[in-house]
Amino acid sequence: MGKWLGRDGGGRMFAPVTSLTAAHTAMAIIAMAVGVVLALTLRTRTITDSPVPAAMAGGIGVLLVIGALVVWWGWRERRDLFSGFGWLAVVLLAVAAACAPPGALGAAHALIGLVVVVLGAITIGVATRKRWQTAVVTAVVTVCGILAAVAAVRMFRPVSMQVLAICVLVGLLVLIRMTPTVALWVARVRPPHFGSITGRDLFARRAGMPVDTVAPVSEADADDEDNELTDITARGTAIAASARLVNAVQVGMCVGVSLVLPAAVWGVLTPRQPWAWLALLVAGLTVGLFITQGRGFAAKYQAVALVCGASAAVCAGVLKYALDTPKGVQTGLLWPAIFVAAFAALGLAVALVVPATRFRPIIRLTVEWLEVLAMIALLPAAAALGGLFAWLRH
């Protein structure tokens, strides 16, 4: 017993407070203080156009940047402290940049702040070069990029929230389909190049050499990148590093679009309106496509992010319908609770059956065709709901 309690020279049962624990606690306290400063800055900025709120947030953000630089130069191995100072500084500087321009806070101010967040996140990702940090940076850039596009549209046109939400839903589906391509581009992984379909480039020779001559490749020739005989095949370590980077970028993009999906579904749905059924159809098709797209990703975090985002969107839609109905036990509680419980039971059944079942090719082909049909039906439904057909007609 004394061994487990730390006596008789044994180890400790409970982890003690170390310097690492103290540093992380200090970062948590700094984050609390930053939260208070942000809340007061935004509150004051909504009241007055004074530059004091922006100067206050920017000054504290500069101090945090100095702290991050000190950690980077003095304790480069402490990536945790650098990330903590860096993210807090990015948030403060973004709020300061958004509050600096005069006038009532609007889409233009939000666009400035979001651009600062994107630039700061990319800087942190490039500086740290850690797998999960890359995933977080990608998620932040994805979410802020979508919000920045919405803010840019609102700067010039008074587009309704439903139309913006419809465009966001379509854009999310496009991003999901482009996730592998974007990840390969970020990781600088080029697709394989086959110079000749007949394979004649496998026996290439230099200009001026006889046709029947075979010359060995020397080490000097192998180091020449312009030489067509040089082996440019990536080594195992480089391939593994590229695979980790691609996976991190894909995880970040899947998490980012999954975070935006519930808000977009909330904006599309309009209960008790003339086109409420069409909005419900668009939202339902999008959620279904998100769930089916999850099967196209081999890594668990990517598929889980998409499924969880779709489930959160379903819960958001049920909640919006429940809050919009007249106050009552049956419409405001009973039917929404039954629907959510049935959806959860269906998810549990799928989780128990699908991984342990080997489906026939005809079933897989049927699912793929249903996915294609859902995509075909989604685009005209979204266009009709957004008023595109009416705009073209008039």
Automatic annotation (TrEMBL):
UniProt keyword Ubl conjugation, yes or no: no
Name of the protein described by the UniProt record: Transmembrane protein
Keywords carried by this UniProt record: Membrane, Transmembrane, Transmembrane helix
Residues of the EccD-like transmembrane domain: 26-394
Signal peptide range: none
Residues annotated as transmembrane: 21-42, 54-73, 85-104, 110-128, 135-156, 162-187, 245-269, 275-291, 303-323, 335-357, 369-392
Native species: Mycobacterium tuberculosis
Pfam family of the protein (one): EccD
Domain of life: Bacteria
Keyword RNA-binding: no
